[in-house]
Every structure is written in C-alpha cells, then in structure tokens.
C-alpha cells in the first residue's frame, strides 16, 4: 500500500459493530491454510517481492498455482494466468557520474551512492541537462518560496541558470509561534516543494544539504546505491552528505547564516564568492516486465455470467527497501511485507478456493486478481482497467484487500459512499463475522489509497478492506509472525460474503459520484491535483506518465469540462509550461489562483487543441 494513503485514513470514521452471529460463511475459512500462503509470500526467500525482481516472478508463479489448484480458469493474456506490463523499476548507474563543488581554492568531489545521490534525474530522457559545467553556485537559504507565509528565499536573488545550494527542513521549525507552525513540518519543507520552487525560478540545479539544527544527516546515500531510483522534476535535484561539504559550509559561514534566519525569519540568500558546480549524469532507466495474476470463476447463471465481480489484492512490496521505505537508511534489509500485502494476497487465494467450491453462490463471474506495481503507483490495477478480462461496462463491482493482516478486532471499509445500495449487503456480510467491528469511511479510499482507486476512477463501485497502519509499515519488521490469522479469517469472511451477495444481486449496484472531495484524494473526485488552491475539475490516469497527463475523467460542470476537455484527453501544456507528468501538472496548478483564465493545450486523437480554462474554487 503506497505511503500516500495516510491522509485518507485520517477521515472521519462512522463505526458499525458487526453482530456476533454465526452464519454459514464463517466456517469456510481457517487460519492454518491462510497462514501457509502468508508465510510463503512473506518468506526471506522471496526477498520482499520487489517490482522487477526474480522473486516477484516466483511469487506470481505461486499465486497462479494456487488459483489453478482452487479450480479457477486462466484470465490473463493469450489464455495464460498472467497479464504482463512494463514499468520503470530503477536506474542503471553508468561510469562518469560527476558532482564537483568549488569555492575559492577549495574543491570537493562527491561520489554517487556514497556522498551524494539524485532525487530528481534526467535519466537519459532529455528533459533536463545531463551535463553542467562551471555553473555559478548560489546560497538559497532553505530553498523555500512561500508567499502566503511572507517568506521567500528567492525574492532577492536571481537563480536563473545557476545551481542553488539549500538546507533541508525549514526555519523556526521548533518555534511554536512561527508562521511555519513549529509543531510539525509544513509542506514547504518537503524536497518536492523545494525542487519545484527551484525549477519555477529558473535554477539549473538544486543541491540540498542537512541544515545545522539537526545532528544527523538523514540522507539515504548507500540506500540509493543498493536501489537506484529517482524522480524527474524537470531539474536535477541532488542530496549531498553534510560531512563531505563541511569545509565549504564553514568557509562560506552558512551555518551561522541559517541560525540568523531562524532568529528573525528574514531570508539571506546570496551569491557565493568564486563558487561553481559541475554535474555530469550517467544514468539510464531500467524498464522491467511484471505480471498481474488473473484467475476466473465462471458464473453459475448463464444469464448473468457475462457480468463480473472483481476481487483483488496487490502482491508486490518493497524488496530490500530503498526510498519508498519508512526508513531508507535500512535499505538492503529484506522488507517482507507480510501485512502489506501478503495478507491480502493470501486472503484472495483462500476466497477463490472457497468460491470455487460453492460456485452456485456466484451467478455472476468472479475475477480474482493479484496486482503487481501497486507500490510504485497502482500500475497493475491501472493496466487491468485498460485491458480487462471482461469488459469494464460488464464489471459490476470491485473488492480490494490491502493490509488486512492485523485486524485485532476491527477492519476499515471504504467505498460504500459511491455504492450506497450496498449498505444493507454490507450489514448482512458483517453479521457473518464474530467479534469484528466494521468501520466505514465516509468518503471511500480515494486517490492514492490502493488498487480499488483504479476501478473507482472508472465509475465502478469499489470497496476497500484495510486493517490499519502500524509501526512495521514499510519497515523490515513487517513479518509473518505478527499477522493476526484469526482476525484475517474474520475479514475474509465478511469480504467473501459481500462478494457473494453482489454476485447474486438482482440489480447491479449503481455508482454514485462523490460531490465534494477532501483530503489527499481530491483528484479522484475531480478537484484538480493535490488538493491545493485552484480547481481544475479533472481525474488523472495514474497508469500513464512522461507524455503528458491523461484524464480518466473530466467533470462536465468543472472548469476543464466547460472549456471542452473530455476524458481521454492528454494535457501537454498549462499556462505556457510543458506538462509531462502529474508532478508537472500539480505544481503548475498551484502557481495559479481561482478566477484566473489559463491557456492550456491538450491532445485528442493525435491532434493538439488549445483552450482557455477559467479556474474556480473547489465546489
């Protein structure tokens, strides 16, 4: 499950205690067979099931074998169990990477994967320079541009075409009276925000070093070497080891300057005397083929077997950790992902086995899918909805199980707000479990939650089951010994019963669009991207990148819809700025306010079209 889900689970919960009634379904599942799957998938032998690794492929073969043994039929490509697709899984580090900083008579040469690593890299795609020589180096304070807080490190310095050296974190971060809050770090402290601020002010490169108020340099230098990955923010962004550049920081007196900024919150950005930076990037993207695993249980009623209910769970995890882990410094250790998401994968295997033995309960066809690529962007489910086994218009609902291994008496259920007709069915399914509280999320999973999102974006009722975050989330300690097997049995019982009732329902559940977005998932509800400021009224396609932002949906009553944009259009330019990725769109939109008219360009059927979009506030 991606880290971006955290904000979604902070939404208001509406609790419903499941009745402790023993029903026919609850006796169909048992802890031991479930745990055999969990132990296999979360074993050290599978080394964390990282995308692009041989171990993920071994996990796929295991799941396919279990589907076959359960009595399912292959539902993948060309009659196979598998649905392959390509994704970017990392970087190759070539020879000749250079980062050299000069100041006066001092020169510091840094080594990739030891004393520096890229957070943003061109990676051979031509979007930013692969080589910079003798670029003037300037000090950019904390690298923050926050006009709403009346603080801007870029206000009094020209950084166009220059390398900016900036500190991590933010000023006055422990001052409760500061405009930066002081209780917790603001959004402006994130390296993504700093990167886009540098880019928007024309910097050629951003170099980030730990600020002097923290004793420990938290950079994951060796972690990058073991799992090389970097985003592309349109400008190189490099994290440098503080101890390696300490002589230059001391010569320029920058630690003292940072402390002065902390006192009066006055930016002190400045050119650095005789300071330059050289940067040569020799990195190429690694593209790997991964596979969804798809098994089909043909519906028992010929009149309804052409319709499908999808039950899914992702089976990929973080492998040996790296930048997606909660503690990147632990890169190299196996992140087994027992709860995330061997627990959900084992559950759908057992649900498939039981469903195949009780086929009469499933007049509609059941499609069981183990998704790859979830941890790096819901890519497996995005690929499936673009290439479904049964047509999406014949897919009546989707149930997703992600992190259901630590229920301990309760499970969180999302998505019922988009399918209110399933509320009574949910109550009936909950009655089959014993001692399990069902907590409903008022607004569903939302964008960035898990693979149910990909189906919800296609206006298919999508119900997510999730037992909650814990201290081992995205850490090496997420091991099978900590899985609550009896609790998982109760979750499976409820999910299976709900799936059976949907499969046997006289009417397919209607999808009801959310009228008012909130939290991180605002993009899913059409509020634009990122939940900040101006409203665009679009839903991005999370399975597509680097060639513009394709929209899965455009709200007809929203700004983009009124300007003529439609679902399937690909945004390539916004207010004169090229749009390649969702990150580009996010930050382009944040630079503008409700009430502004923005010129955009988008591609439809191979033709580039211009339009004027009047941005508004969120409905």
Protein model, in words:
By secondary structure, this protein is an alpha+beta fold. It folds into three domains: about 5-90 and about 285-505, 3-Layer(aba) Sandwich (Aminopeptidase), CATH 3.40.630; about 95-280, Glucose Oxidase, domain 1; about 525-615, Pdz3 Domain, CATH 2.30.42.10. Helix content is about 20%, strand content about 25%. It has 13 helices and 26 strands. It has helices at about 30-40, 55-70, 190-200, 220-225, 240-250, 255-265, 340-355, 380-385, 425-430, 450-455, 485-505, 560, 580-590, and strands at about 15, 75, 80-95, 100-105, 105-110, 115-120, 130-140, 145, 150, 165, 205-210, 235-240, 270-280, 285-295, 310-315, 365-370, 395-400, 410-415, 435-440, 460-465, 540, 550-555, 570-575, 575-580, 595-605, 605-615. Strands 1, 2, 3, 14, 15, 16, 17, 18, 19 and 20 form a ten-stranded mixed beta sheet that branches. Strands 5-4-13-7-10-11-12-6 form an eight-stranded mixed beta sheet, sandwiched between helices. Strand 11 (about 205-210), helix 4 and strand 12 (about 235-240) form a beta-alpha-beta unit. Helix 1 crosses helix 11 and helix 7 packs across helix 11.
Short description:
The chain is of the alpha+beta class and 619 residues long. Helix content is 22%, strand content 25%. It has three domains: 3-91 and 286-503, Aminopeptidase, CATH 3.40.630.10; 95-281, Glucose Oxidase, domain 1 (3-Layer(bba) Sandwich); 526-614, PDZ domain (Pdz3 Domain, Roll).
């Amino acid at each position: 499950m991606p880290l971006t889900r955290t904000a979604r689970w902070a939404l208001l919960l509406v609790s419903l205690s499941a009745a402790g009634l023993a029903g026919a379904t609850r006796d169909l599942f048992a802890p031991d067979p479930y745990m055999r799957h969990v132990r296999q998938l979360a074993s050290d032998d599978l080394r964390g099931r990282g995308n692009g690794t041989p171990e993920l492929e071994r996990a796929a073969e295991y799941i396919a074998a279990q589907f076959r043994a359960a009595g399912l039929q292959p539902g993948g490509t060309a009659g196979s169990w598998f649905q392959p697709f390509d994704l970017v899984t990392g970087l190759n580090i070539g020879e000749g990477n250079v980062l050299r900083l000069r100041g006066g008579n001092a020169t510091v040469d840094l080594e990739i994967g030891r004393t520096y690593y890229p957070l943003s890299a061109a990676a051979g795609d031509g979007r930013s320079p692969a080589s910079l020589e003798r670029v003037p180096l300037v000090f950019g304070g904390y690298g923050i541009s926050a006009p709403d807080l009346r603080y801007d490190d870029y206000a009094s310095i020209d950084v166009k075409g220059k390398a900016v050296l900036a500190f991590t974190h933010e000023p006055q971060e422990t001052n409760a009276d500061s405009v930066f809050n002081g209780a917790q770090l603001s959004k402006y402290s994130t390296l993504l925000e700093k990167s886009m601020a540098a880019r928007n002010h024309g910097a050629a490169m951003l170099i980030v070093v730990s600020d002097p108020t923290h004793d420990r340099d938290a950079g994951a230098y060796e972690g990058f070497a073991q799992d090389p990955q970097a985003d592309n923010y349109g400008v190189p962004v490099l994290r440098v080891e503080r101890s390696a550049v300490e002589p230059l920081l001391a010569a320029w007196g920058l630690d003292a300057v940072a402390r002065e900024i902390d006192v009066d919150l006055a930016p002190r950005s400045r050119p650095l005397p005789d300071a330059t930076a050289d940067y040569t990037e020799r990195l190429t993207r690694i593209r790997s083929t991964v596979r969804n695993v798809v098994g089909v249980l043909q519906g028992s009623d010929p009149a309804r077997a052409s319709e499908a209910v999808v039950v899914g769970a992702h089976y990929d995890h973080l492998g040996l950790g790296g930048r997606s882990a909660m503690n990147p410094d632990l890169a190299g250790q196996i992140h087994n992902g027992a709860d995330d998401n061997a627990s959900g994968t084992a559950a759908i295997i057992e649900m498939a086995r039981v469903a195949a033995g009780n086929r009469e309960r499933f007049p509609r066809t059941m499609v069981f899918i183990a998704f790859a690529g979830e941890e790096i962007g819901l890519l497996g489910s995005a690929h499936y909805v673009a290439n479904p086994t049964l047509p999406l218009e014949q897919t009546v609902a989707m149930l997703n199980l992600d992190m259901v291994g630590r229920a301990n008496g309760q499970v969180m259920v999302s998505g019922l707000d988009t399918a209110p007709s399933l509320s009574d069915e949910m109550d009936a399914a909950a009655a089959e479990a014993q001692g399990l509280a069902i907590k409903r999320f008022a607004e569903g999973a939302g964008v960035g939650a898990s693979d149910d999102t990909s189906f919800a974006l296609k206006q298919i009722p999508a119900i997510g089951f999730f037992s909650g975050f814990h201290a081992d989330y995205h850490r090496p300690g997420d091991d099978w010994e900590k899985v609550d097997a009896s609790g998982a049995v109760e979750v499976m019982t409820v999910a299976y019963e709900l799936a059976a009732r949907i499969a046997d329902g006289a009417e397919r559940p209607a999808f009801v669009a959310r009228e008012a977005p909130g939290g991180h998932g605002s993009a899913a509800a059409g509020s634009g991207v990122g939940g900040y400021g101006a409203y665009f009224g679009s839903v991005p396609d999370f399975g597509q990148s680097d060639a513009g932002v394709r929209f899965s949906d455009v709200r007809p009553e929203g700004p983009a819809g009124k300007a003529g944009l439609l679902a399937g259009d690909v945004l390539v330019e916004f207010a004169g700025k090229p749009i390649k990725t969702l990150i580009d769109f996010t930050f382009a939109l944040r630079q503008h306010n409700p009430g502004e008219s923005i010129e955009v360009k988008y591609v439809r059927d191979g033709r580039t079209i211009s339009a004027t979009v009047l941005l508004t506030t969120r409905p």
